[in-house]
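Our consortium's second objective concerns turning raw sequence data into structural hypotheses that experimental partners can test. To show how far this objective has progressed, the report includes one record in full. It was chosen at random from the queue rather than selected for favorable results. The single chain below, 468 residues long, was entered without modification.
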Amino acid sequence: MAQLWGGRFTKETDQLVYNFNASISFDKKLYAQDIRGSIAHVMMLAKQGILTDIEKEQIIDGLEGILSDVEKGKLKISDAYEDIHSFVEATLIARIGDAGKKLHTGRSRNDQVALDMKLYTRDEITQISHLLEELLRAILAIMEEHMETVMPGFTHLQKAQPITLAHHMGAYFEMFKRDHERMRDIYKRMNTCPLGSGALAGTTYPLDREYTAQLLGFDGPTLNSMDGVSDRDYLIELMSALSIVMMHLSRFSEEVILWNSNEYQFVEIDDAYSTGSSIMPQKKNPDIAELVRGKTGRVYGALMSLLTTMKGIPLAYNKDMQEDKEMCFDAMDTAKGCIALFTGMLRTMQFQTERMEKSARQGFTNATDAADYLVNHGVPFRDAHGIVGRLVLYCIEKNIGLDDMTLEEYREISPVFEEDIFDAISLETCVNKRVTVGAPGKTAMKQAIKLYKQYLREARRKEEWNRN
């Protein structure tokens, strides 16, 4: 058993207890962040005169060697160690000798693991933000191509009013734009450095916490050492934000699944994102969309598990907090995979535009516009609503649409109707006369697309600035 403690104890830990307590099987994912944090810590210790420059160079060279060897596969992270911190420190001491024993001066595993998780989470948020930007670009490309593709808009899964595919996709752009903004908010709020908090009460060493924070790209140090080691709010926020991302992906997946069905036939999913049946040769199943929908519950589970873990913990650090890692690692990986796969599916999906327009024509989606026509000709809205209701009933009985009626048939129900009713209820008119902000008309959609392009340009500039 390789561990960083033991002087207080007179006998070995029971093997089952040790295994139950150990975290290296999952926290080994933090090796790069652990080494990065240790290098910054050593640079600060040398700056403060706590380590000599020679010791600093020895330790940093040793840490960089460990990082390089792990990434090249020359050094395997061994489960013989309790956690990633033990592995890195023990390996360092084995390689450089007594200088390595000074690495842990002025810090605790409590502030060390808090730092590692923040560094890891920041990196994950950056990756997730990039993936969301790619999804937004895929949605925007569809919007630009389909400003004139008419389709039915739905409420209660019933055809309601005609819209365009661009307008429908714009709703998802708004959802994922909010998700993208949430990532930036979490990054900004979490960007304080816990290193230097010690176990819970700081340290007597003259640490320069502002310098360490600067080296690691934080806005500054945490201002309370107890909160510094026991804060997991940023993980709860991220799990919550990822749950919302997955909810949006699941809603979108549900629509793709419906649209892919024989009853809708609105889309053709690319073969690369579909599977067949082992027994029914005609089947083309939307497996990626179904799996995204299914994996949403997995991410929800991580959020609920972490909330439950944290709800009864007194200040400051408690071992319960070790349970934050496996679930959060899994949720981050799940969300990233789902966003990437869904984006690929969306980019390769073919939209059956003629089928969409036919569906809009067959569903009385222009009934509201027929009522508006009557209102514009002096009929009170409630009376107009009743008249159009009778028109719809008449069409159902005749198995025709409002577009198929003759003017004489219209006038039999209300003499107010004139020849211009046919232009008023054409799907193109129904869509394009809706020009208020947020509506599906071409004028409104052009303005929305302009704003979305601007948003993505600014997002790319910020990403490039952060990289540099």
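The partners drew two points from this record. The CA atoms of residues 55 and 62 lie 11 Å apart. The radius of gyration is 30 Å. Both points have been shared with the crystallography group to help prioritize constructs.
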